[in-house]
Amino acid sequence: MAAATGSAGSPGSSPGTRERLLAVACRLFAENGYRATRTQEICRLARANAAAVNYHFGGKEGLYRAVWDRALESTLEDGREGPPLSADADRDWLYRYVQACVLSVFDSGMPGILRKLMTREIADPSPISRDVLANHIAPRYSELDGHLRAMIGPKATDYQIGCCVFAINAIFGSLALNGTARRELFRAEKPTPAEIEQFAREICAFFIGGVRALRGVPEKRR
Fold first, then answer.
1. How far from each other are the two terminal CA atoms of the chain, in whole angstroms?
2. What count of Cα atoms within 13 Å lies in the side-chain half-sphere of residue 107?
3. Which CATH number applies to 1-58?
4. Sign of the Cα pseudo-torsion (186, 190, 195, 196, in order)
5. Which mean pLDDT values do the consecutive 10-residue runs of the chain (222 residues) have?
6. How do the domains of the chain map onto residue ranges?
7. Which DSSP category does 58 fall into?
8. What is the DSSP string of 143-157?
9. Is the CB of residue 65 less than 8 Å from the CB of residue 128?
10. C-alpha span between 84 and 76 (Å, rounded)
11. What is the CATH number of domain 72-221?
């Protein structure tokens, strides 16, 4: 196929084309959702040939998958930065998870894009929503599930874990929607890195207290 040769004017002739397409697609899919985003518009804004999406990603669905990969990888990498919170690996992971969730509410970068992608996918599922759930969203929740089980102990029930996951994620949904609460918690509409760190630590401490309480529940009452 002529496009694969890299000849002048072909979709693959510019080495930065793929990255430009991905950067534009991340923004448009997050803002508009899968269905309302047009590949022609992505190509126009990325200054790319109209066939570039097919050339680099195999079509719109492949580009959408790549957007999810980029958003998740970038957000998780950001969450791993910084010194450990404690010697407890599970507690430290939970803190990083909470921190990433807080960033996703306020950040205009990849954490914010990831939150918008998830919101859009829930409100208006894409044609590949099952694939997105299985390969992008479910593994993230599975990792949270594993760390919570390690913290609560081997006798944790699926119902307890489900309640914990719901409670953790409900806090950030509320934070995203409740402007009054944000103004009470932070001095400005967008908190400083220090305020985000403090908030993440306080929420993490709250969760750890809940975990300790669950560990103390007699087995016959679980």
1. 62
2. 20
3. 1.10.10
4. positive
5. 41 75 96 96 95 95 95 72 63 85 79 88 91 86 90 89 88 81 83 86 89 79 60
6. 1-58, 72-221
7. S
8. HHHHHHHHHH-TT--
9. yes
10. 15
11. 1.10.357.10
